[in-house]
Amino acid sequence: MTAPPLVPIVRPALGDEEVVASARVIRSGWITQGPEVAAFEAELAAAVGARHATAVANCTVALELALRALGVGTVPGRVDEVITVSHSFVATANAVVAAGGAPVFVDVCEDDLGMDPALLEAAITPNTRAILAVHQLGIPCRILDIASIARRHGLPVVEDAACAIGSEIEASPGQWQRVGRPHGDVACFSFHPRKVVTTGDGGMLSSNDAALDARFRLLRQHAMSISDVKRHAANEIVFEEYTEPAFNFRMTDLQAAVGRPQLARLAAIVAERRRLAEVYRAALELHPVLAPPHDPPLTRCNWQSYPTRLRPGAARSQRAVMQRFLDAGIATKRGVSNAHQEPAYRATHGHVRLPVSERLRDQCVLIPLFHGMRDEEQARVLEVLRALA
Ligand SMILES: *Cc1c(COP(=O)(O)O)cnc(C)c1O
Q1: How confident is the model at residue 1 (pLDDT cuts 50, 70, 90)?
Q2: CA torsion sign, 324 to 306 to 43 to 69?
């Protein structure tokens, strides 16, 4: 008897629409940043309710670009502190360093795994240049509170919305808004296969500020004074200029074409994920070992991941729970990591103590949840949950 196939933590759900879209681009003769990227940008801006969106190669460079455009790392020798969370994929901290900033880590809230606004004010110094808040695993953080504190101090806010496409915030009673509107100054999305919409790799910055968006467009393409699309379309000779040192952070048309049909299906994708999450919640409500994630009021998650928590005094360890799943052919992941506990940040931030972040890393277990998950796959996960009880 052969073992049943592994239930993965995620499986990209790409189909014929994406195949047809990428073939269209290959046949068109234009494969790098061009008309498909422009259409993907316009569709994403419309989908999240932002005025502008600019596509880039991935979310890490989106964050770097956002911070640079807001002034981080632009004055040689100046210390530019960026207040953020350690409790995130290490890309968040890495983007701050890449932009020339110094990450200052604050602890997170137990319920939404995001920056605790109560700790923000005390972390602000005369060197603070920006706040970088994360909607971790797609769970909206307390962005409205964070943005209001930042505004009081004249500081810009970047949202790391890498995981959060399709997640919503109740901005005022009955007023649901998608993450990316933006609720700070700029929101950054990822299209890595681990996220909810994927282009292989890819990223996007959404904002309401035309001047800021123009900076993103300039800096993503070597600060070239005239785009190659415009240059190719011109019926007279034009010479471009390069106005400042910048980057190549472009997305390709091949990638954008693959993202567009998924964006068009976003509401259905998120609905399917919420249905799967409800099944887990029902199974975990009274479970003795694992608790379902908090579902904070005023937010609706896209369930990019499903983070269960070991209950206090649970009879099994995180490692034992994960091993039990692995033995049944089911992939899991431990809680979100903390940059300050990784070797890369030990020398600079090893002394920092963030009790909630540290506890969460060691108490969370992510179990498989993805759109396209088959009922029999979720049934196998539920079987292990029953056996653990
Ligand atoms: C995935 C992720 C990133 C990085 O996104 P890439 O597109 O892979 O660069 C940044 N922040 C968070 C919170 C993420 O989950």
Answers
A1: low
A2: negative
272 confidence band (pLDDT: 50, 70, 90): very high
Residues 49 and 163 in one domain: yes
The range of the structural domain enclosing residue 227 comes to 16-264
Is 79 in the same domain as 189?
yes
Ligand 1, atom nearest to 201 Cα: 7
Phi, psi (degrees; rounded to nearest 5) at 301: -85, 155
- Out of 264, 285, 312, a domain closes at 264
User: 3-12, 142-151, 325-334: lowest mean pLDDT where?
Assistant: 3-12
Note whether residue 8 is domain-resident.
no
What count of Cα atoms within 13 Å lies in the side-chain half-sphere of residue 118? 4
Question: 321 C-alpha vs ligand 1 centroid, how far in Å?
Answer: 26
Q: Is the pLDDT of residue 189 over 90?
A: yes
Nearest CA to ligand 1 atom 5: 59
Position 207 scores a pLDDT of 98
Return the ligand 1 atom nearest residue 63 CA. 10
